[in-house]
Amino acid sequence: MQSTTIKRAVARDADRLTSLIQNCGAYQGPYASIIPGYRVTADYITRHQVFVAVDETGRLQGFYALLLKPPEVDLAFVADDVQGGGVGRLLIEPMITQAGAAGLTEVRVVSHPPAEEFYRRLGAVRVGTVAPSPLKVNWERPELRFTTI
């Protein structure tokens, strides 16, 4: 098994983060409407707490984006071929620590429905449901919270 490093994303990572989103198998079929045209920009990476998981060759395995105001995981993706191998945990656990160090007591996650159990296994608690927001998101999404303290 290859080792994974978590590090701060830089502006030049924008295209490969976008590519990971665009090729995510979890957003096919009924969930596909959210993906077309979605881009992670260099400006987005500069303005937010975006961290990537890379293997020793530099290959992108996943990433997350933490917004501090309001405190929320805005994006979290793991490459299809490494899902189930612990990369998601390697991303989310330090995100919770990072949020606490920034003075946040909790972090909101509006989850992709199939990812809800993943977040719950890491300690998130479901606090509600977010209604669909047409035109792109046509399904209810679980709303969860991580407590940082």
Keywords, please?
7 strands, alpha+beta, Aminopeptidase, 149 residues, globular, single chain, N-acetyltransferase domain-containing protein
Structural description of this entry:
The chain is of the alpha+beta class. It has one domain (4-147): Aminopeptidase, CATH 3.40.630. It contains four helices and seven strands; from the N terminus they run βααβββαβαββ. It has helices spanning 14-22, 42-47, 87-101, 116-121, and strands at residues 4-8, 49-55, 60-68, 71-78, 106-110, 125-130, 141-147. It has a seven-stranded mixed β-sheet with strand order 1-2-3-4-5-7-6, sandwiched between helices. The longest helix is centred in the middle third of the chain and has 15 residues, at 87-101. It is globular, with a radius of gyration of 15 Å. 24% of the residues are buried. The mean pLDDT is 93.
Q: Provide the domain count.
A: 1
Low-confidence runs (pLDDT<50, min 5 residues)? none
SSE string, helices as H and strands as E: EHHEEEHEHEE
Enumerate how many helices there are, as a single number.
4
Structural class: alpha+beta
Distance between the termini: 32 Å
Major sheet summary line: 7 strands, mixed
Radius of gyration: 15 Å
| CATH-scheme architecture | 3-Layer(aba) Sandwich
Number of strands: 7
Using the coordinates shown, work out and report the CATH topology.
Aminopeptidase
Just give the CATH class. Alpha Beta
The order of strands across the largest sheet is: 1-2-3-4-5-7-6
